[in-house]
Protein backbone atom coordinates (compact mmCIF):
# COMPACT_ATOMS: atom_id res chain seq x y z
CA UNK A 1 0.00 0.00 0.00
CA UNK A 2 1.65 3.24 -1.12
CA UNK A 3 1.60 6.68 0.48
CA UNK A 4 -0.99 8.12 -1.88
CA UNK A 5 -3.50 5.34 -1.26
CA UNK A 6 -3.21 5.88 2.50
CA UNK A 7 -3.60 9.64 2.06
CA UNK A 8 -6.79 9.12 0.04
CA UNK A 9 -8.13 6.88 2.80
CA UNK A 10 -7.29 9.63 5.29
CA UNK A 11 -9.11 12.17 3.10
CA UNK A 12 -12.24 10.00 3.05
CA UNK A 13 -12.22 9.45 6.82
CA UNK A 14 -11.61 13.17 7.42
CA UNK A 15 -14.58 14.03 5.22
CA UNK A 16 -16.82 11.62 7.13
CA UNK A 17 -15.69 13.22 10.39
CA UNK A 18 -16.52 16.69 9.10
CA UNK A 19 -19.89 15.54 7.76
CA UNK A 20 -20.68 14.33 11.25
CA UNK A 21 -19.48 17.59 12.81
CA UNK A 22 -21.54 19.74 10.48
CA UNK A 23 -24.71 17.74 9.85
CA UNK A 24 -25.19 15.06 12.50
CA UNK A 25 -25.95 14.88 16.20
CA UNK A 26 -22.79 13.62 17.95
CA UNK A 27 -24.95 11.80 20.51
CA UNK A 28 -26.38 9.48 17.83
CA UNK A 29 -24.71 6.19 16.90
CA UNK A 30 -24.09 7.31 13.30
CA UNK A 31 -22.79 10.71 14.38
CA UNK A 32 -20.32 9.25 16.85
CA UNK A 33 -19.27 6.47 14.46
CA UNK A 34 -18.35 8.94 11.71
CA UNK A 35 -16.48 11.11 14.21
CA UNK A 36 -14.51 8.09 15.40
CA UNK A 37 -13.70 6.95 11.86
CA UNK A 38 -12.23 10.39 11.19
CA UNK A 39 -9.72 10.08 14.01
CA UNK A 40 -7.65 7.96 11.62
CA UNK A 41 -6.70 11.10 9.72
CA UNK A 42 -4.85 13.31 12.21
CA UNK A 43 -2.41 10.69 13.46
CA UNK A 44 -1.79 9.52 9.89
CA UNK A 45 -1.07 13.05 8.68
CA UNK A 46 1.35 13.58 11.58
CA UNK A 47 3.16 10.41 10.50
CA UNK A 48 3.40 11.67 6.92
CA UNK A 49 4.42 15.15 8.09
CA UNK A 50 7.50 13.65 9.74
CA UNK A 51 8.22 11.52 6.70
CA UNK A 52 7.74 14.46 4.34
CA UNK A 53 9.94 16.70 6.47
CA UNK A 54 12.86 14.31 6.17
CA UNK A 55 12.29 13.46 2.48
CA UNK A 56 11.48 16.88 1.00
CA UNK A 57 14.00 18.61 -1.27
CA UNK A 58 13.08 21.98 0.23
CA UNK A 59 11.96 22.33 3.83
CA UNK A 60 11.34 26.02 3.19
CA UNK A 61 8.83 25.31 0.40
CA UNK A 62 7.23 22.53 2.46
CA UNK A 63 6.63 24.93 5.34
CA UNK A 64 5.38 27.64 2.97
CA UNK A 65 2.81 25.26 1.45
CA UNK A 66 1.48 24.37 4.88
CA UNK A 67 1.23 28.01 5.93
CA UNK A 68 -0.37 29.27 2.70
CA UNK A 69 -3.05 26.60 2.66
CA UNK A 70 -3.61 27.01 6.40
CA UNK A 71 -4.44 30.66 5.72
CA UNK A 72 -6.69 29.74 2.79
CA UNK A 73 -8.49 27.13 4.91
CA UNK A 74 -9.13 29.26 7.97
CA UNK A 75 -12.42 30.90 6.99
CA UNK A 76 -13.99 27.67 5.64
CA UNK A 77 -12.85 25.87 8.81
CA UNK A 78 -14.35 28.45 11.16
CA UNK A 79 -17.59 28.52 9.20
CA UNK A 80 -17.73 24.72 9.28
CA UNK A 81 -17.04 24.08 12.95
CA UNK A 82 -18.25 27.36 14.43
CA UNK A 83 -15.20 27.72 16.66
CA UNK A 84 -12.53 30.41 16.88
CA UNK A 85 -9.62 28.00 16.50
CA UNK A 86 -6.84 27.40 14.00
CA UNK A 87 -7.48 24.68 11.42
CA UNK A 88 -5.51 21.44 11.21
CA UNK A 89 -3.07 22.79 8.62
CA UNK A 90 -2.03 25.50 11.09
CA UNK A 91 -1.49 22.79 13.68
CA UNK A 92 0.61 20.81 11.20
CA UNK A 93 2.57 23.98 10.43
CA UNK A 94 3.44 24.37 14.12
CA UNK A 95 4.40 20.68 14.18
CA UNK A 96 6.64 21.34 11.17
CA UNK A 97 8.31 24.16 13.12
CA UNK A 98 8.83 21.76 16.03
CA UNK A 99 10.78 19.49 13.69
CA UNK A 100 12.79 22.49 12.48
CA UNK A 101 13.59 23.42 16.08
CA UNK A 102 14.75 19.87 16.79
CA UNK A 103 17.06 19.91 13.79
CA UNK A 104 18.45 23.42 13.73
CA UNK A 105 18.60 24.71 17.32
CA UNK A 106 21.83 23.32 18.71
CA UNK A 107 21.71 24.36 22.35
CA UNK A 108 19.57 21.83 24.26
CA UNK A 109 17.98 24.36 26.62
CA UNK A 110 17.00 26.72 23.80
CA UNK A 111 15.75 23.80 21.70
CA UNK A 112 13.58 22.55 24.56
CA UNK A 113 12.10 26.00 25.18
CA UNK A 114 11.33 26.40 21.47
CA UNK A 115 9.62 23.01 21.28
CA UNK A 116 7.54 23.76 24.38
CA UNK A 117 6.49 27.16 23.01
CA UNK A 118 5.57 25.73 19.60
CA UNK A 119 3.66 22.89 21.23
CA UNK A 120 1.77 25.48 23.28
CA UNK A 121 0.83 27.25 20.03
CA UNK A 122 -1.14 24.16 19.01
CA UNK A 123 -3.46 24.79 21.97
CA UNK A 124 -5.22 27.30 19.73
CA UNK A 125 -5.76 24.79 16.92
CA UNK A 126 -7.45 21.58 15.90
CA UNK A 127 -5.96 18.53 17.64
CA UNK A 128 -4.41 20.77 20.27
CA UNK A 129 -1.26 19.31 21.88
CA UNK A 130 -2.03 15.83 20.55
CA UNK A 131 -0.72 16.54 17.05
CA UNK A 132 2.52 17.87 18.53
CA UNK A 133 2.86 14.78 20.72
CA UNK A 134 2.21 12.50 17.73
CA UNK A 135 4.79 14.38 15.65
CA UNK A 136 7.46 14.10 18.34
CA UNK A 137 6.70 10.40 18.79
CA UNK A 138 6.99 9.66 15.07
CA UNK A 139 10.17 11.68 14.73
CA UNK A 140 11.65 9.70 17.63
CA UNK A 141 10.59 6.38 16.10
CA UNK A 142 11.40 7.15 12.46
CA UNK A 143 12.99 4.24 10.64
CA UNK A 144 12.47 1.74 13.47
CA UNK A 145 9.37 -0.47 13.35
CA UNK A 146 9.61 -1.47 16.99
CA UNK A 147 9.81 2.15 18.08
CA UNK A 148 6.98 3.04 15.69
CA UNK A 149 4.79 0.40 17.32
CA UNK A 150 5.61 1.96 20.69
CA UNK A 151 4.87 5.42 19.28
CA UNK A 152 1.43 4.33 18.15
CA UNK A 153 0.82 2.62 21.47
CA UNK A 154 1.72 5.76 23.40
CA UNK A 155 -0.41 7.86 21.03
CA UNK A 156 -3.38 5.57 21.68
CA UNK A 157 -2.92 5.77 25.46
CA UNK A 158 -2.59 9.57 25.48
CA UNK A 159 -5.54 10.08 23.14
CA UNK A 160 -7.58 7.45 24.95
CA UNK A 161 -6.83 8.91 28.36
CA UNK A 162 -8.00 12.36 27.32
CA UNK A 163 -11.16 10.95 25.74
CA UNK A 164 -11.94 8.74 28.73
CA UNK A 165 -11.72 11.69 31.12
CA UNK A 166 -13.86 13.77 28.76
CA UNK A 167 -16.59 11.12 28.53
CA UNK A 168 -16.48 10.34 32.25
CA UNK A 169 -16.62 13.99 33.30
CA UNK A 170 -19.55 14.50 30.91
CA UNK A 171 -21.53 11.93 32.89
CA UNK A 172 -20.84 8.57 31.26
CA UNK A 173 -20.51 5.53 33.50
CA UNK A 174 -17.02 4.02 33.62
CA UNK A 175 -17.96 1.13 31.34
CA UNK A 176 -19.63 3.35 28.78
CA UNK A 177 -16.76 5.83 28.84
CA UNK A 178 -14.31 2.97 28.29
CA UNK A 179 -16.26 1.59 25.32
CA UNK A 180 -16.50 5.02 23.72
CA UNK A 181 -12.79 5.55 24.31
CA UNK A 182 -11.90 2.27 22.60
CA UNK A 183 -14.12 3.16 19.64
CA UNK A 184 -12.57 6.62 19.35
CA UNK A 185 -9.07 5.16 19.49
CA UNK A 186 -9.80 2.70 16.71
CA UNK A 187 -8.56 5.15 14.09
CA UNK A 188 -5.14 5.30 15.73
CA UNK A 189 -4.96 1.51 15.92
CA UNK A 190 -5.93 1.13 12.25
CA UNK A 191 -3.37 3.75 11.24
CA UNK A 192 -0.68 1.89 13.18
CA UNK A 193 -1.56 -1.46 11.61
CA UNK A 194 -1.47 0.05 8.12
CA UNK A 195 1.87 1.80 8.66
CA UNK A 196 3.52 -1.18 10.29
CA UNK A 197 2.10 -4.00 8.17
CA UNK A 198 0.98 -2.66 4.80
CA UNK A 199 2.73 0.61 3.97
CA UNK A 200 5.55 0.11 1.46
CA UNK A 201 7.23 3.44 2.17
CA UNK A 202 6.76 4.70 -1.39
CA UNK A 203 4.51 7.15 -3.19
CA UNK A 204 2.43 6.12 -6.18
CA UNK A 205 4.49 6.02 -9.41
CA UNK A 206 1.63 7.92 -11.08
CA UNK A 207 1.35 10.52 -8.32
CA UNK A 208 3.09 13.49 -9.93
CA UNK A 209 2.05 17.04 -9.08
CA UNK A 210 -1.59 15.98 -8.68
CA UNK A 211 -0.78 13.80 -5.69
CA UNK A 212 1.48 16.50 -4.26
CA UNK A 213 -1.18 19.21 -4.29
CA UNK A 214 -4.47 17.34 -4.00
CA UNK A 215 -4.62 17.14 -0.20
CA UNK A 216 -3.72 20.81 0.24
CA UNK A 217 -6.46 21.89 -2.19
CA UNK A 218 -9.02 19.35 -0.98
CA UNK A 219 -8.90 20.46 2.66
CA UNK A 220 -10.31 24.00 2.22
CA UNK A 221 -12.41 22.99 -0.80
CA UNK A 222 -14.36 20.23 0.94
CA UNK A 223 -14.97 22.43 3.98
CA UNK A 224 -16.34 25.19 1.74
CA UNK A 225 -18.61 22.72 -0.07
CA UNK A 226 -19.96 21.32 3.20
CA UNK A 227 -20.64 24.82 4.51
CA UNK A 228 -22.52 25.70 1.31
CA UNK A 229 -24.54 22.48 1.52
CA UNK A 230 -25.52 23.29 5.10
CA UNK A 231 -26.60 26.77 4.03
CA UNK A 232 -28.96 25.50 1.31
CA UNK A 233 -30.43 22.58 3.24
Write up what this structure looks like.
- It holds the Pfam family TraX.
- Keywords: Membrane, Transmembrane, Transmembrane helix.
- By secondary structure, the chain is mainly α.
- It has one domain.
- Helix 2 crosses helix 6.
- The longest helix is centred in the N-terminal third of the chain and has 27 residues.
- It is globular.
- The termini are far apart.
- 33% of the residues are buried.
Which terms summarize this structure?
233 residues, mainly alpha, globular
**Anisotropy-based shape:** globular
| Total discrete domains | 1
Give the ordered list of helices and strands.
HHHHHHHHHH
Report the sheet with the most strands, covering strand number, pairing sense and barrel closure: none
Question: Distance between termini?
Answer: 38 Å
Multimeric status of the protein:
single chain
Any idea what the radius of gyration is? 18 Å
Percent helix, as a range, is: over 70%
Structural class: mainly alpha
Q: Tally the helices.
A: 10
Report the sheet-strand fraction. Answer: under 5%
Overall mean pLDDT: 96
| Unreliable residue stretches | none
User: How many beta strands in the DSSP annotation?
Assistant: 0
Q: Which helices and strands, and how do they pair?
A:
Layout lengths: L2 H21 L5 H27 L3 H23 L6 H17 L3 H14 L8 H12 L3 H25 L4 H11 L1 H13 L9 H25 L1
Short structural summary:
By secondary structure, the chain is mostly helical. The protein has helices at 3-23, 29-55, 59-81, 88-104, 108-121, 130-141, 145-169, 174-184, 186-198, 208-232.
Amino acid sequence: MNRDVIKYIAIITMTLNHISNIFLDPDTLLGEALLDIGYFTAVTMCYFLVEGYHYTHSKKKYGQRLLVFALISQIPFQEAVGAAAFNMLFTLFFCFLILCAKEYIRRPAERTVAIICLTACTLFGDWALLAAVFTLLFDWSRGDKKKTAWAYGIAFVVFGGINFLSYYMAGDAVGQALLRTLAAGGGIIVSGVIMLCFYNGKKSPRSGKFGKWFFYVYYPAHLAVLVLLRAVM
